[in-house]
Design a protein that fits this description.
elongated, 3-stranded mixed β-sheet, mainly alpha, 3-stranded antiparallel β-sheet
Length: 503
């Protein structure tokens, strides 16, 4: 960790898979230097925001230099005002990592004791309990970060009795979890409370993890589309490379190329010769291509933010410079963009699901993909899959409404334009989870449809489609009769959490 080279893949490795972290020597030197600058500023009579002044609406209230450390502690206590269920553990660990990387830039003025504590917490699996409601993502994710800091900082009376943490699978009072993990709590010095709470670390961690998941889901959406295309006997001409080069969009060209690869060798395409396919088949590259391009755009912004100095004030050559780097607008806007793009991907999948379960007679598929076509009517087959997919799709459309355009002023009007970044990121998280289920539903339907193709068509699938079908069948069976569908959807949704299954 050096404050400069973090990428989304690193966030996932640490947050989800327990990769160990350490600080680069260069980062340690910068941290020690900036801590010395804060000590100098705390001794001066000239006001320095957050060191010898109050915070937010109290910016013009002076704080005696001898009380600067008490100010840090009071900030953590007063800002621990979050509510609701806790964030998932990977999001909390991701936020810890991002806070560490910001502090590693050496512009915040914290002592090495603070960054060392974050390193040890991550490496030993100590994860603070952090409620998920209460952040506007403006001066940072203030309440969530305060709860994070509350778990490993101390003051008169020790670690707060209200702080909790997860350790070795158990939710404990933070002071007990610290003891079991062998972690010494930190008594804060001037500005350290502010440095721990400024910046949209939770919003950014959510965006980073969901960006990673979104890439896997979009790759899966291409496979599901290829399977649906073959099951319905779609026209291969729609993916002619000349057609896509004629429009020139890179994402569209790439999706068409991958669809050709997935269906290479197929003898079940073009079964409906002479018919023009519906948009949900014919326009797969034109729909998923822009979604991929939005995903790529967010990558650049996200990577920049992962290595950004989001504290306030920042320290340059011993001088404190106040500004607004904590503002979460970049994250809010990026999350809103990705929300819209992934909702479009889900809408495409839902339309394909509908075509699979209500396939016209010329496809050779039974209505509702009933496993024993002669029992249609007595059995309902996969009829309800489209209902569930439609419900998830409609929910995503509500969640996709932009959150970044909403603002309410806070702190007596001092903070008068808030980006709503945390809400945007949380709604993105819900859309990602819904999309995973929508695609799982499509895989249930597509695999069933391929199995129901008139023999020996199942032996003439495209190479990639055949591999995907085999992978799905290793997890769920062909549904010969009516049975609960939820377990099969859940099983495939779990499969979609990794890219290892992709053909």
């Amino acid at each position: 960790m050096d404050g400069r080279h973090l990428v989304p893949e690193d966030v996932e490795r640490v947050a989800r898979y327990g990769a160990k972290v350490s600080l680069a020597p260069s980062a340690k030197r910068r941290i020690s230097r900036s801590a010395a600058w804060v000590r100098q500023l705390a001794r001066r009579s000239r006001p320095t925001y957050g060191v010898t002044t109050g915070l937010g609406a109290f910016v013009n209230r002076r704080v005696d230099p001898s009380q600067a450390a008490e100010l840090s502690r009071n900030l953590i206590l007063s800002h621990s005002a979050g509510l609701g269920p806790p964030f998932d553990l990977d999001i909390i660990r991701g936020a810890m990592l991002l806070r560490l990387n910001t502090l590693a830039k050496g512009l915040s003025g914290v002592r090495p004791e603070v960054t060392d504590a974050l390193v040890v917490m991550l490496n030993r699996g100590f994860t603070p309990w952090v409620p998920s409601q209460g952040s506007l993502g403006a001066s940072g994710d203030l309440a969530p970060l305060a709860h994070l800091a509350l778990s490993f900082t101390t003051g008169p009376g020790g670690v707060s009795p209200h702080a909790q943490a997860q350790y070795e699978g158990e939710l404990l009072p933070a002071r007990e979890a610290l003891k079991r993990a062998g972690i010494t709590p930190v008594r804060l010095s001037p500005k350290e409370g502010l440095s721990l709470t400024n910046g949209p670390a939770f919003s950014t961690a959510m965006l980073a993890l969901d960006w990673m998941d979104a890439g896997r889901l979009l790759a899966s959406a291409e496979v599901a589309s290829a399977m649906a295309l073959e099951a319905l006997g779609g026209a291969a001409a729609a993916f002619d490379p000349r057609l896509h080069l004629a429009r020139g969009h890179a994402g569209q060209i790439s999706v068409a190329r991958r669809l050709r690869a997935l269906t290479l060798g197929s003898q079940v395409l073009d079964r409906n010769a002479g018919l023009q396919d519906a948009y949900s088949l014919r326009c797969i590259p034109q729909i998923l291509g822009p979604v991929w391009e939005a995903h790529t755009f967010v990558q650049g912004l996200l990577t920049q933010e992962l290595n950004a100095a989001t504290d306030n004030p920042l320290l340059f050559e011993g001088k404190a410079v106040s500004g607004g780097n904590f503002h979460g607008a970049p994250i809010a806007l990026a999350a809103d963009l990705l929300k819209t793009a992934l909702t479009a991907a889900g809408a495409l999948a839902e339309r394909q699901i509908d075509r699979l379960v209500s396939a016209p007679a010329q496809t050779g598929l039974p209505p509702m993909l009933v496993g024993r076509p002669g029992k249609a009517g007595l059995q309902s087959g996969l009829m309800m899959l489209q209902y569930t997919a439609a419900a998830l799709c409609l929910e995503n459309r509500s969640l996709a409404a932009p959150d970044s355009v909403h603002s309410l002023p806070t702190s007596g009007g001092q903070e008068d334009l808030n980006p709503n970044a945390a809400t945007a990121a949380k709604n993105l998280h819900r859309i990602v989870n819904n999309l995973r289920f929508i695609l799982a539903i499509e895989f249930v339907a597509a695999a069933q449809a391929l199995d129901l193709l008139p023999a020996p068509a199942i032996r003439k699938l495209g190479r990639g489609v055949q591999r995907a079908h085999t992978s799905i069948r290793s997890r769920i069976p062909f549904l010969a009769r009516d049975e609960p569908l939820s377990p099969h959807i859940e099983a495939l949704a779990l499969m979609l959490r990794t890219s290892e299954w992709l053909p």
